């Protein structure tokens, strides 16, 4: 997927996602934040938590076996990690394990119910044709993912779709179709090529007083993992 993100449609998608995640994480507070994969998207750049890691750059581990204690993280960002995972269910369960009650989860996924998804599926049927999107990974529908989140006691706080231009390969043709962004967002919002979901982990009976106490304790002792890459630069 890294190579595809250097293409005109890849850069177009990445720019939309970067804007969404920067706005979403800027005002999320806590102590420990984690991004799983896709270093091309700096999902924690605009966040101010003191301890931030990117799996695949700052530490190396299996996504389904994260080296964090249960209920130890305040934010997890999954930029296309679920659709690229060998077992998306296992990955989502692991994320639920390491997130604190009231912790946030941010997910980006390619939308199969879009023009981009349709072109990709047609390309797979015509095996000789070059696929529009990366070959690896399986699309996970927006409503299907919401069902998975609900089963794991996540509550969706915010969701939106984006990237409405047709599946074109050149910068020039994508630029010509810029006008369709506003039209798509207004008239067929769920048909964007990519979706963004922000969810919160809910735990029945959780007391906010207890959460505040746990956060004070967590500030004194970070999880035993690699050093924060932002700190390493100093």
From TrEMBL:
An annotated Gene Ontology molecular function: methyltransferase activity
Q: What is this protein called?
A: Class I SAM-dependent methyltransferase
Q: Which Gene3D superfamilies match?
A: Vaccinia Virus protein VP39
Coiled-coil ranges (or none): none
Q: Which Pfam families match?
A: Methyltransf_11 (PF08241)
Task: Look up keyword Methyltransferase and say if it applies.
Answer: yes
InterPro entries listed in its UniProt record: Methyltransf_11 (IPR013216), SAM-dependent_MTases_sf (IPR029063)
What are the record keywords, sorted? Methyltransferase, Transferase
Q: Which residues form the Methyltransferase type domain?
A: 59-107
Q: What is its EC number?
A: 2.1.1.-
Question: What SUPFAM superfamilies does UniProt report for this protein, alphabetically?
Answer: S-adenosyl-L-methionine-dependent methyltransferases
Q: What superkingdom heads the lineage?
A: Bacteria
Protein's GO biological process: methylation
């Amino acid at each position: 997927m890294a190579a595809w993100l250097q293409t005109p449609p890849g850069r177009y998608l990445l720019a939309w996602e970067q804007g969404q995640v920067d706005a979403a994480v800027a005002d999320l507070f806590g102590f420990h934040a984690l991004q799983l994969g896709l270093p091309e998207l700096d999902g924690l750049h605009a966040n101010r938590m003191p301890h931030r890691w990117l799996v695949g750059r700052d530490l190396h581990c299996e996504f389904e076996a994260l080296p964090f204690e249960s209920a130890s993280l305040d934010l997890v960002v999954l930029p296309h990690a679920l659709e690229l995972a060998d077992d998306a269910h296992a990955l989502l369960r692991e994320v639920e394990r390491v997130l604190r009650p009231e912790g946030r989860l941010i997910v980006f996924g390619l939308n199969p119910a879009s023009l981009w998804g349709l072109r990709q599926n047609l390309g797979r049927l015509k095996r000789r044709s070059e696929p529009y999107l990366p070959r690896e990974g399986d699309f996970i529908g927006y409503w299907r993912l919401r069902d998975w989140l609900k089963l794991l006691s996540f509550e969706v706080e915010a969701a939106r779709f984006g990237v409405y231009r047709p599946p074109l390969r050149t910068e020039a043709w994508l630029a010509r179709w810029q006008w369709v962004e506003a039209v798509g967002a207004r008239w067929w919002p769920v048909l964007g090529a990519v979706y963004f979901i922000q969810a919160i982990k809910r735990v029945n009976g959780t007391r906010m007083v207890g959460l505040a106490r746990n956060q004070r304790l967590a500030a004194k002792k970070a999880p035993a993992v690699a050093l924060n890459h932002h700190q390493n630069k100093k």
